[in-house]
Amino acid sequence: MLEQRRRRTERLFLRYPIQVAGNDTAGKPFGETTHTIVVNRHGGRIVLKAQVSAAQTIRITQITSGRSADFRVVGLAGPSADGGAEWGVECHDENVNFWGINFPPLDESPDSSSVLLECSGCHEVALTPISMVDYDLLESAGILVRKCGTCQTETEWAYSLNPTRVPGPAMASVAAVAAPPASPEVSPAVRSDVAPTAAGAERRSSPRVPLRLPMRLRNSQDVTDLTKSENVSKGGLAFTSGVMYEIGETLYVTCPYDAGGSHIEMQGRVVRRESVAGTGRYLYGVEYQK
Ligand SMILES: [Zn+2]
Questions:
Q1: pLDDT(177) > 60
Q2: In angstroms, what is the span from residue 6 Cα to ligand 1's centroid?
Q3: Which CATH number does the domain 2-91 belong to among 3.40.50.170, 1.10.1060.10, 3.30.300.20, 2.40.10.220?
């Protein structure tokens, strides 16, 4: 019922560290430190080792912000690759902006694009629908000028380099955790069409931006796959697909993909694959090769 009343919003693969407290199915109180897999306006999907059940209430504290709220367990998504299980959760109070991100309503059209931007005036963070012209501006100038509802005026928005670990090609790296907060100075460096340097350390230090762009994949078996990126860095990107690719497999990536436009294809290698519980899809990390 809650899902019907609330408009579905876009979602992001963001790994926020969280603390969860509640009672397990045996009625015993539990508390565990875990993380999110996906976040949206009203909740998301989290990993839990404790046994819980649908419709029960749990208390979630976001460790980075200290924000706490009661959530309803919506349902089991499936087993987690990290042990335990993945559960859908939804905040009881729909007016709470728990993750500190403004999410737009869900747009399921295949060519819609969105990016996590931060207002330079008030530091509001929003997953912002963008056009390809906006994307080109962001890539060349590093900023977009648009109206901010909080500042009540036109302000400069730049890529939000979320301090959270964003899943991507260098998942094992802690570089993304240490990524500097968003500032227009660092943003022009975030370019998906620049080849990574040979040094792995430098590659891992490149910021990863939650950026959802239409993309096309080809492999050597001539499988062609249209999907969307989840996040993009200089050295590669992450995306979900229902197609099973092998670790180490070579993929030819066009991102952004515009059916009517010209295409720059990058050669990359699958460096990571994780099944996305309950969806039949996989989350991939691809590293570009030069
Ligand atoms: Zn603002």
A1: no
A2: 25
A3: 2.40.10.220
